[in-house]
Amino acid sequence: MASKSSRSQEHIRNFCIIAHIDHGKSTLADRLLESTGTVDNRGKKTQMLDDLALEQQRGITIKARAVAMRYKRDGVEYELNLIDTPGHVDFQYEVSRSLACCEGALLLVDAFQGVEAQTVANAFAAMEHDLTIVPVINKIDLTHARPDEVAEEMMNSLGTDPDECKRVSAKTGEGVATLLDAIVDSVPAPTGDPDAVLQAMVFDSNYDDFRGAITYIRVMQGTVRKGQKIKFLRAGSTHDVVELGQFAPSRVPCDELVAGQVGYLICNIKSLGDVHIGDTISIAGNDPAPALPGYDRPKRMVYCGLFPSDGQDFSELRDALERLAVNDPSFEFEPETSDALGFGFRCGFLGLLHMEIVQQRLEQESDIDLVQTAPNVTYEITDKRGETKNIHKPQDVPDPGDIEKFCQPIVRCNVIVPEEYIGPVMKLCQERRGIQKGHEVLGASRAMLTYDIPLAEVIYDLHDRIKSCTRGYGTLDYEMVGYEEADLCRLDILVNGNRVDALSVVCHRADADRRGRAVAKKLKSEIERHMFEVAVQAAIGSRVIARETVPAMRKNVTAKCYGGDITRKRKLLQKQKEGKKRMKAVGNVEISQKAFMAVLTDGE
């Protein structure tokens, strides 16, 4: 690749595609790669940028990907750098990193489904980053497409001009050529002096078994060349650039990357722990460029315990988690032990889908059989001494007498629903202790409801329940608002008087009786009978709120006493009773893995 002069910077365009889940981002990216000739017919496949096996299976994007395309118009060659982003609310963090590297965004909306909850959230995020937004209506080839109404919805909710909406079909390729022209005309060229001191942003990284850590960068100022010594400012480490290049969509090496370009670096870094996402790369020496404002650290919202179902797999699970954490900075883990499940890890995730994806990747890529405890959120507790601490697991909640203030995370939920389903959705949100904050009409037949709901009520199954009560038409998006005080308590499950730590949960005091009874009932049916009776109790602090008893196995000791004196029978029964009492005092209750799984997978 020839070295770039500052003139050719005018011919670079950096943009990303943002949309609600399933609105066709990855398919549109495929059409753009084909239209610009970046991939030939041999390399063609669907969802070319979704290269994780799980992305292909589920048909969703999990990791953001970058690709450079060449587009010729009027004899001038333009370099279009596309960053494909996930659409699901759990991967919002990947989207925010992509927005920081672009000057423009294609805002994609389905011509049938119209503006959805995540569309609104992503559009506002792009506006906060001062990106130029190109509105695009996709799937115009559908028989039920309603592009004019959707253009009006976009104007009502996002303030876009209906005449500026580009109409395309990512499936058939219709309108893609016009869209490429719109990208060149509307998205501004990057700024930044190619002759200034090097300043580049690290927006992603992954690990190659043969080459080590591969760092994805966007050059803000200056030029980075092969063989140059560079410094990671936050990590404080210095490395030689062994190879650099761009993705097209596989790695294509080149000699230099100038201000405005997006590409990758290979520096023989052995561990991904040395590459921090959001770090700034500059020259080695005494006068590096100032560090760029990085990204906010992703806030883990959901925690759960992961344990190998066979205790022998502990070290394999640790290695697998380390490999995953290297590629996914929004996931964290720390070792923990449980009396019931043995050695395992407490893991933090951005949301429930993120948790599910990590669990599936562990099972598929590392072939480990996992037991997962009930998911819970992070609470904030102020004790009587005035100290505030974050609680990630129910076992750490202090006794009720020591708690001054118990706060739970609250999220603002935007639910977009057809008007005929507004009643059931409002009822559902109120059942989850939601407080209505707004009601906005988007078009002829759709409305957006805004509620503040405790995150613990959202993560279990709110998304599924909204889908089922709106026949699949409702969409949910949420963002963290803050912490609010609530009447919460720790619900413990006791078996034979011993607390089972893996089954403790934090819940609202009004729900505790119902949940305690449900778990006790479930455990009673799952625990195998012993030679002595086993008490299963649910308790808040020292107060027992529910109890079920697993009856003892009995032998009919009086069977051989036929006829004769009743006192002889009583004596034998008394003897048996004493024996069972002694057994209960020294006996251990074995709770099988199956019993745990039955309770944990039951969710509520």
UniProtKB/TrEMBL annotation:
Enzyme class: hydrolase
Catalytic activity: GTP + H2O = GDP + phosphate + H(+)
PROSITE patterns assigned to the protein according to its UniProt record, in alphabetical order: G_TR_2
Cellular component per GO, a single term: plasma membrane
Any one biological process term the GO annotation gives: positive regulation of translation
Keyword Protein biosynthesis in record: yes
Domain of life: Bacteria
UniProt cross-references to Gene3D superfamilies, sorted A to Z: 3.30.70.240, Elongation factor 4, C-terminal domain (3.30.70.2570), Elongation Factor G (Translational Gtpase), domain 3 (3.30.70.870), P-loop containing nucleotide triphosphate hydrolases (3.40.50.300), Translation factors (2.40.30.10)
Keywords for the protein's UniProt record, in alphabetical order: Cell membrane, GTP-binding, Hydrolase, Membrane, Nucleotide-binding, Protein biosynthesis
Annotated GTP binding sites: 22-27, 138-141
Membrane topology: Peripheral membrane protein
Major subcellular location class: membrane
Positions of the Tr-type G domain: 10-191
EC number of the protein: 3.6.5.n1
Homology family: Belongs to the GTP-binding elongation factor family. LepA subfamily. Belongs to the TRAFAC class translation factor GTPase superfamily. Classic translation factor GTPase family. LepA subfamily.
NCBIfam families (UniProt xref): lepA, small_GTP
Protein's name in the database: Elongation factor 4
Source organism of the structure: Rhodopirellula europaea 6C
Gene that produces this protein: lepA
